[in-house]
Every structure is written in C-alpha cells, then in structure tokens.
Specification:
single chain; Trna Endonuclease, Chain: A, domain 1
Length: 172
C-alpha cells in the first residue's frame, strides 16, 4: 500500500532528471553552434573580398549562421533573446532589443534569390505580434521583393555588404 507514493516520487524524480538531460543537450548544441560561429567569424577575417565572404557564409550550417547573427548583435551591445531550440521556432530565429524596441530575427542562408513568400510570412508574423523584424540573408534580392521590404516599415533587410559589416563587428 505504501508503494504507490514511493512510485510517484520515483517517477517525478525520473522526469526531472530527463528534463535536465534534455536541457543540457540543448545547451550543448547551442554552445557547439556558438563556437562554430566564432570560428566562422575568424575565417571571414582571412577572406579579403566581401563577395567571397558571402559565398563562404552560404556554405555554413544554417544554425551556425543563426548564432553568427545573434552573436554579432550581442557584440554590438544589444540584448539578444535566444530560442531554446533551432527548429519549430515559428519562423523566429531569435529576438533582439534595440532602444527598448523588440525585433524578431529571421536568418536565411540562401544560395540564390530569396523567396518573396518567406519575406511575406515573416512580415505577417511581425505585424501580428506588433514588433519589428530583421530579415537577414545571404542570397540575392529581386527588385520587386526589395521594394516590398522597403515599403514595409516593420522590416529591415540585412544582406550583402551590410550583413558582412554586421558579422565583422568587434566586441565592446
């Protein structure tokens, strides 16, 4: 008769331990990606032209690219809010607070042209949550998509030389 409370306690402790292990695994993955992002930043310093730097960024792991952007914003002195996981993030790769204004971040590692549907979905997400957004990407932007981005006051496009400049920021 006294086994039931003991079994419940044991089950509760087991669940807490499993939750701890999962959290540590996530932390370990984030640390791995942040370390990779730091190495990418160092490697970019050895590449002389911004076009070749951008080509290099198109080849790195997408999660490492996300961390590279978030780390660069932290190095600039902004408060960065990281997600607890990389997938299933609802289209938000992270958040940053700039002068008391919250921004969602979407980081896309494109080879070619960015997809207008991705920009539209991100704009809608920002609109729905009444926040601004940074659409950061390594691809090319068609004139029509660029015009849409410029017409949307909520979104800021970060690509090309502007992206390289952001990433190459020195720490405070």
């Amino acid at each position: 008769m006294h086994y039931l409370p003991l079994a419940l306690v044991a089950t509760g402790i087991s669940l807490l331990f499993i939750a701890y292990l999962i959290r540590e695994r996530i932390s370990w993955r984030h640390k791995l990606r942040r370390d990779q992002a730091s190495r990418v930043r160092q490697r970019l310093r050895d590449i002389p032209e911004w076009g070749r730097q951008l080509a290099y960024l198109r080849k790195i792991n997408p999660f490492t690219f996300e961390e590279l952007i978030l780390d660069a914003l932290e190095l600039k002195g902004y408060e960065v809010i990281r997600n607890s996981r990389y997938t299933g993030d609802g289209g938000i790769d992270g958040q940053v607070r700039v002068n008391d204004q919250l921004y969602y971040i979407q980081a896309k590692r494109y080879q070619g042209y960015i997809q207008a549907a991705h920009v539209a979905a991100f704009a809608q997400l920002c609109e729905h949550n009444n926040v601004k957004g940074l659409f950061v990407h390594t691809g090319k932007t068609r004139p029509g998509t660029r015009q849409t981005l410029h017409e949307n006051e909520r979104l800021t496009l970060v690509s090309g030389k502007k992206l390289i400049s952001l990433i190459m920021v020195e720490g405070k």
